[in-house]
Each structure stands twice: as structure tokens, then as C-alpha cells.
Design goal:
Blueprint (H helix, E strand, L loop, with lengths): L3 E8 L3 H14 L5 E3 L2 E5 L3 E8 L2 E8 L2 H19 L9 E2 L11 E12 L2 E7 L13 E7 L10 E2 L5 E2 L7 E12 L4 E7 L6 H7 L6 E8 L8 E7 L3 H10 L5 E8 L13 E8 L10 H7 L9 E8 H15 L6 E7 L5 H5 L3 H7 L8
Parallel strand pairs: 15-16, 15-18, 16-17, 18-19
Antiparallel strand pairs: 1-5, 1-6, 2-3, 3-4, 4-5, 7-8, 7-14, 8-13, 9-12, 9-14, 10-11, 12-13
Helix pairs in contact: 1-2, 5-6
Length: 376
């Protein structure tokens, strides 16, 4: 089978520390490296990545079976080196096989097929697109939506710069990128659903969904975002921003799964029908007139749960940043759950949009912002 290969050497960086930070971050996302011959080797989606730290330089080699998968492996290396070394993009130059693509392989233009309201604050948009098979896995249920500015009828889409980095249009043509859960998808029929939370202080996602009409086009890339592996006992919890993910995870669980589901919404009118295993009890929390985010309603309910003390348990929580921090600390230090037994993600942060969250210190933002936009 033909192998494509490309490599880069980034000079004048603290290579040992950059490599250690990269490996630690990748482990958090279940990408584990093996050390052999003074180098680290990673298998990633039909791609082999080799990383080696030398004095003041980090060398990376990427091999794969196709130009598109080679590109994705190269971008994984590029973004992580740039994040943990704080080097300029032009410091990372690639040699070897060239990649000639019009758009990033993960990018799609998607078209609105239908719009419906499934609750007073939840709007479902069905999109149609070609080649959706990469988005259909239950292992990675999130995607990035690229939203045109209001009034732009003919959006411009990302292209690739000479070094392979996506270039985005600017000014009035700029695209706002937001993360969402793919609620349902049928790749064979070419459609998928996204549930948008609607709120008065609408950001790019909520604002776009509020005026969405059949025929409109936006961009989509991905996939990404870890989900909950099936275990005998499960706890799924979150606010309305996590509701699409909770619903999708629940539908995928075996029928004999036991556990609890806890969801915070504004009022009883925001409750929707959930298809959960019969052994999982569903509890709805109503915050009423309280502002979403600052309350301890969800954290208190989660911390009242009696979590089994065995290895057949898993806890998944998606919530506001402060709530996620509180719950994560309780699960780790009081309950004693390890990394393989829980996943707590900050879907949003009170007073911030997703772009601002991504500017938080890398150690915080990198592992805590995979989810659906809420308030931006």
C-alpha cells in the first residue's frame, strides 16, 4: 500500500518540555504514544506519527495511506507544537509529499433542509450534505459549525495556505466557529440534526439558529469530542446545553444499563422525551428565574448521588465551567474516580463566549471545552 510521508523540524524551542506537554495532552484524549529508539510513536486514524526531541529542536514525521489522512496527522502535530511552544506558524515548515487539497478534508458545506422547535428554548435544524460517514461514529459526537455573518448570502469558505494551515475569510465575510453535538445522523441518506439552545442574549450559534431557513448554507468540520463509553452503571448529567449529547448517549446504551440522568433546565416546559434504558431514572431540575450558570443546583444534585464503588461505572457531565470544576473535583477527590471512569466537560463559561474560552490558559482550555456552545 502506498505510503505518503512528510516531516518537520522546529528549532529554537524547549523541545523536551514541549514534547512532554504534547504527550500528556494526547493521553487525556486517549492517544497514547510508545517510546522506541529515542522517539515516541503514535497511531492516529491510519496515520503514524513519530516525535523526537533533540537539543533545542523537535522533529516530527507523519506517514499515512492517503493525502487527506496525511494532512490531518500533520495538522494534529502542527497545532499541538504551536500551542505548547508558542512558536509562530511559519516556524513549522514541512518537507516530503505535498498535499494539494482545496479544503481541509474534514470540511463540508451543509444545507438547511428543515427547521423545527422541540421546546421553547430548543430548535432542531436538519442539514443535508454529502460524504458524512466520518461524522457518524458514536465515539466522537461533536462537530464545528462555521457560521456566516448575518445578511451574508454567499459565504466564503476556508482554503488552505501554502503550509497547509486553513485560511479563513475576514471582515464582513468572517466565519464564527462554534462547537455542537450531532444529535442524530444518517450518512447513507445524507442528513444530520443539530439542536440549538435559543436565548435572549444570542451569540453566533443561537442567533443563526433563530433565523435559520431551508436552503441556507453553513460550513461544518470535525469530528471531535469524547463521549461516554457504555458501562453497567452510568450517570449522565448536564444543563440544557448538554441535553443533545445526553439524549444521544442514552440512546446508544445497552438496554440493561442502570443508573441516573440529571438535567437542569429553566422550567418544566423545557423537558423533552428521552429514550433511556429502563434501569436509568431521569431527574429534571428547574432553576426557574435564576440565571443559568451561577447556581449550584446541578452540582448539588450530582453530589447527592450514590455512585457504586466498583469498576463498572462511568460518569459523564456537561455543564457551565464553575459547575464542571466543582463536580470534577468531587468525583476525583471524594468519590475517587479515575480518568477512565469519568468525563466532565465545561460546555460554556458564564460571561464568556467560546472564542474567549479558547483564550484561557492552555492547561485549562485544552481539556475542558469540548462540547456544545451555550451562551455565545
Amino acid at each position: 500500500m502506498t505510503q505518503f510521508q512528510t516531516s518537520t523540524t522546529v528549532h529554537d524551542i524547549d523541545a523536551e518540555n514541549v514534547l512532554a506537554s504534547m504527550l500528556a495532552h494526547l493521553r487525556e484524549h486517549d492517544l497514547h504514544a510508545l517510546q522506541k529508539d529515542n522517539a515516541w510513536h503514535i497511531d492516529y486514524a491510519n496515520t503514524q506519527i513519530t516525535l523526537q526531541a533533540r537539543e533545542n529542536s523537535l522533529q516530527a514525521t507523519v506517514q499515512s495511506v492517503s493525502p487527506s489522512s496525511l494532512y490531518e496527522g500533520r495538522m494534529l502535530v502542527f497545532y499541538h507544537i504551536q500551542e505548547f511552544s508558542q512558536c509562530e506558524a511559519q516556524a513549522i515548515q514541512w518537507d516530503g509529499d505535498k498535499i494539494e487539497l482545496q479544503y481541509p478534508p474534514s470540511f463540508r458545506v451543509v444545507t438547511v433542509a428543515a427547521v423545527s422547535n422541540i421546546g421553547p428554548h430548543l430548535r432542531r435544524v436538519r442539514f443535508r450534505a454529502d460524504n458524512l460517514s466520518r461524522f457518524e461514529s458514536n465515539d466522537n459526537i461533536h462537530c464545528k459549525l462555521l457560521l456566516p455573518q448575518a445578511g451574508v448570502e454567499n459565504p466564503e469558505w476556508p482554503t488552505l495556505a501554502a503550509n497547509g494551515v486553513p485560511q479563513f475569510p475576514a471582515g464582513d465575510k468572517r466565519l464564527d466557529m462554534r462547537t455542537y453535538t450531532i444529535r442524530r445522523i444518517n450518512a447513507a441518506e445524507g442528513w444530520f440534526d443539530i439542536d440549538f439552545v435559543l436565548h435572549a442574549d444570542a451569540g453566533p450559534g443561537s442567533g443563526w439558529a433563530g433565523q435559520a431557513k431551508p436552503g441556507q448554507q453553513i460550513g461544518m468540520s470535525g469530528t471531535g469530542g469524547r463521549t461516554a463509553p457504555a458501562r453497567r452503571w452510568m450517570l449522565l448529567a448536564g444543563d440544557e446545553t448538554a441535553l443533545p449529547a445526553i439524549a444521544r448517549i442514552g440512546e446508544s446504551l445497552p438496554a440493561d444499563t442502570m443508573g441516573r440522568v440529571i438535567i437542569e433546565v429553566q422550567s418544566a416546559s423545557d423537558q423533552i422525551t428521552l429514550d433511556m434504558p429502563k434501569g436509568m431514572t431521569v431527574q429534571w431540575l428547574h432553576r426557574g428565574n435564576a440565571v443559568a450558570g451561577p447556581t449550584t443546583l446541578l452540582a448539588d444534585a450530582v453530589q447527592s448521588c450514590n455512585i457504586p464503588a466498583d469498576d463498572s461505572r462511568f460518569v459523564w457531565v456537561g455543564a457551565e465551567f464553575a459547575t464542571a470544576q466543582s463536580v470534577r473535583a468531587w468525583l476525583r477527590h471524594t468519590v475517587g474516580l479515575g480518568n477512565k471512569e469519568q468525563l466532565v466537560v465545561a460546555y460554556w463559561r458564564h460571561g464568556m463566549n467560546e472564542t474567549q474560552m479558547k483564550k484561557m490558559p492552555a492547561k485549562l482550555a485544552s481539556s475542558k471545552t469540548e462540547g456544545q456552545e451555550a451562551g455565545s
